[in-house]
Amino acid sequence: YYSNPYEYFLQYGLRLKKRNQFTVDAALSGTYYHSIFEQVINRLIDKRTDFHDLSDQELENLSQKSAHDLIELPDFQILQSDDHFRAVAQSLTNDVLLTLKLMHKANRLNNSHPIKTEVVFGKLSTDQQ
């Protein structure tokens, strides 16, 4: 009380609580990046398309489609809440596209083919051995 009577009054007299502020933290942006990468690669696997055969425009279309699909999910609704967060979402999407383009160029050198995007670690069941 003696260090800040006004804050004491707000907290204990009026029983006010601090509001949660919407932010895009490292965890949310990391999940967003990972989800777009995963969707793009899974779409390539489903279509049986090689990564190195895509044009830059096709790669951009795939990443934009994935970003659009993600923003509709409840976990990423904050990215639609106002102009600021829409700009943040566009910036995150542009970062992903740049990384995908770099991966695309690297894939032309090593010619690898993704099979899956996630692998479960741990003991193998009898049917997986």
Describe the structure in your own words.
The mean pLDDT is 85. Helices cover 58% and strands 0% of the residues. The chain is mainly alpha-helical.
Describe the protein's topology.
Elements lengths: L4 H9 L12 H22 L8 H16 L11 H28 L19
Helix pairs in contact: 2-3, 2-4, 3-4
Output the keywords.
elongated; mainly alpha; 4 helices; 129 residues
Query: From the structure provided, what is the oligomeric state, counting identical versus distinct chains?
Result: single chain
Largest sheet: none
Instruction: Report, as a whole number of angstroms, the end-to-end distance.
Output: 65 Å
SSE sequence, one letter per element = HHHH
> How many E-type strands?
0
- Please, how many helices? 4
Average pLDDT confidence is 85
Q: What class do helices, strands and sheet pairing give?
A: mainly alpha
- Proportion of residues in β-strands: under 5%
The helix content, as a percent range, equals 55-70%
Approximate shape: elongated
| Regions with little confidence, pLDDT below 50 for 5+ residues | none
Our Rg estimate from Cα atoms comes to 22 Å
